[in-house]
Amino acid sequence: MADPRDFSPESEREFNQQNIAEFRTNGGRVGGPFEGFPLALITTVGAKTGRQRVSPVGLFEIDGAKYIVGSAAGRDRNPGWVANIRNTPSIMVEIGADPPAEAIVRELGGAERDRIFAEVKRRAPGFAEYEAATTRVIPVFELSLT
Question: What is catalyzed by this enzyme (predicted)?
Fold first, then answer.
């Protein structure tokens, strides 16, 4: 598979739309490069537009809590959904075949963020590559389903 950092904005949107459709068609399962990888769909409110935005994200369940990571495949800028969550931390989340649920998102900081991100990298070593590819601190968020 091509390096996602090389995607144009249009091809990235198309790639995400295909994964969103596959996720919804197959009860939360997506094949190809995401085969067997736990994903979720998050619906955020655009910080600039106010429009709803759906994004596929990796989902990590660690110590009974759910986390998502704003890696952007190691790009130097956060994915757009990060600004959306920081602006409006109430989102909708789709996990597996479960119906969409409301969630409140909390950004982790300091030692808490570092501990969870270390576990993310242990479970999915590609995230260590993303971290090495950028100088920004990759944000980590906890989802609390309401």
Answer: oxidized coenzyme F420-(gamma-L-Glu)(n) + a quinol + H(+) = reduced coenzyme F420-(gamma-L-Glu)(n) + a quinone
Amino acid letter, 26: N
Residue type, 20: I
Residues 61/38, Cβ–Cβ less than 8 Å: yes
Rounded to an integer, what distance in angstroms lies between the CA atom of residue 42 and that of residue 74? 20
Over residues 99-125, the pLDDT tens digits come to 999 999 999 999 999 999 999 999 999
- Return the percent helix, strand and coil in the chain, to nearest 5: 40, 30, 35
**Which candidate, 76, 94, 79, places its Cα nearest to that of 39?**
94
Pick from 22, 121, 16, 126: nearest CA to 67: 121
Residues 6+ apart with CB under 8 A from 130: 71, 72, 73, 74, 138
- The two structure tokens encoding residue 61: 């369940």
Q: What is the pLDDT of residue 1?
A: 39
Q: Whose structure tokens read 């971290």?
A: 131
Secondary structure of residue 64 in the 3-state scheme: coil
Delineate the domains of the chain, giving CATH numbers in brackets: 4-145 (2.30.110.10)
Give me the mean pLDDT over the 81-92 stretch: 97
Answer whether 100's CB lies under 8 Å from 107's CB. Answer: no
